[in-house]
Amino acid sequence: MVQSSVQPGAVGGVDPSIASAPISADAELAYEAGVELKARSQWSYARIRFFRHKAAVVSLVILILFALVAIFAKQLAPYGFDEIDLEHIDPTTGLAHSPTLAGHHFLGTDQLGRDYLSRIIYGIRTSLWVAVFVALLATAIGTAIGAVSGFYGGHVDNILMRITDLFFTVPGLAILLVAAVYLGTGDTDVSLGPITIPIYQPMKIGIILALLFWVALARVVRGLFLSLREKEFVEAAKAAGASDLRIITRHILPNCVGPIVVFTTLIVAGAILTEAFLSFVGYGIQPPNAALGKLIVDGQSEGFTLWWLVVFPGLAIFLIAMCINFVGDGLRDALDPTQRRSR
Amino acid sequence: MLQYVLRRLAYSVIVLFVASFLVFTFVAKTGDPLAALRLNPRISPQSVQNIKDRKHLDDSIVVRYGYWVQDAFTNGFGTTILGDRPILPDLWRVMKHTLQLVIIAELLAILIAVGIGVYSALRQYSVFDYSATTFSFMGLALPVFWFALMLQVGVVYVKDWTGYNIFPIASLSSVDPGTGIHFWIDRAHHLVLPILVLMIASIATYSRFMRASMLEVVNSDYVRTARAKGLTEKRVTMKHAFRNALIPLITLVAINFGALLGGAIATEFVFSLDGMGLYYINALNTNDPYPVMAWLMVTATLIILFNLIADIAYGYLDPRVRYD
Questions:
Q1: Partner residue opposite A317 with nearest CB, options B143, B215, B259
Q2: How close, in Å, is residue B19 to chain A by CA atoms?
Q3: The complex's ipTM?
């Protein structure tokens, strides 16, 4: 019993020379109490905390798989997105075939005889891309505005709070639909003087979604800045002659990284779900771009007899969103120990 | 208190005006509401022009907005561009339907979520607690419209196997619903699936919140005092802890009301229920600003009222909270 409990590195690399026999329990306690047994950075603590959250680790692995599928869609998809398979389909029994483990179409084919697995893979590619784009853009905008608003107060703060009021007054989804109808269809070229930037339609949907999602993050960052700007280390930096920009970016912002990262994961999940709904209603991503929500609405047009056309794209959305939520939960435990759920 | 309420209302009115102008501009510039008429060879260009004149479609956006404000206050949000249909009666009808759906779903969700949340807090780390946590993560990741479709797929397949239609999968009433009690039984039968769909996300959110709130209260000083003076465990949890843990939920429910109306858009769209959500999507499809604006104004007013009631109730229930 004594021997088995000595496991250097098991609970975070305790030096075996210092360690006495029942070390793992002690090390655990010492670690919880904040006593350093070995010099470790904040990040390695965060990593340890994250890897303790089993559901988050499993979700992270699944998410990485999804991301790889999205990145290598062209190589992994057995058929093209719009490719009609005339070789393996028997047209006398209809073009839509149900999923089969034996044949060529693992997830079946749709009404036009297109391989559904390939279509879903391309759908995941677009949907994930849009969600990550939304998260990055919304985080950038939200952090910048929240930081300025919390640090300086005044007019910026006032305007921010009124915009938030707007989103608390009108359902965000309704505003989003209006914006999507107004801006959303077709590719556009935005010309800035001599340079012309092509904006593809999915990117447009991403921008519209980001305009909805930055608000809540800005509120969070503002709150953090409001409390942090009164702290002694900010005063010290000011006394040492640091500029406002330096105080914001080098002194306060690093202390907000945890909550911001956690919130960003929530935005990714929200963006995936919202984009799917927009595409489902017909105001989201337009063909020829693939999108999971669009696959669902096309699949249900036959009145549910082709169940796989509805089930699988939705399952992909559901899985991605759930894994992101779990990873977000793990990140909250890891990066934001004060906000830790009691579990 | 009164001052606080008045200031909140004043802010809301300003925000509403700005929002209404922006949305009006967006919708008015989106597309041509008369496109369908122009394509119809039996409608002369002159009658299209007549509609344009009557609805001031050739004026600038600011002037049109002015006409809209006038209509909104004096004429019950005016009439639609196509068909000249009065908006307010339609809106009342769909609002009645949506509120039936939303309020029943919400009350059931609160009851269930409070039960789940309190029980998981009292049996922290139990199997029940972990299952409830997993369930709520799943509920939050579930696309509302897809869940609705899955229920429909399930009903269709049950019908294929057994020949029996357990639930209607579309619309609010049968073709001939009857009157009185028969009408309401028929309505309830139609609303089972939509209510189930709307409940999932709410239960997921509220049960997590209730669990956290209950845990906080259970570990507080006054609960320890209650135990120390020898009260029974039942009395401590039900009278001292539970009642106080319930208070913060009020705010969450009120804030969530807007999201709920958003969720109703998806649910009503899938089940084709004649409610506000479907009305809104149809209004957007016609490119007509008037019904869209009327919808937004009514919804916003509802949300403002709910939030105000929640604030006042909170101040009443928790004397530590003071508004100023």
A1: B143
A2: 7
A3: 0.84
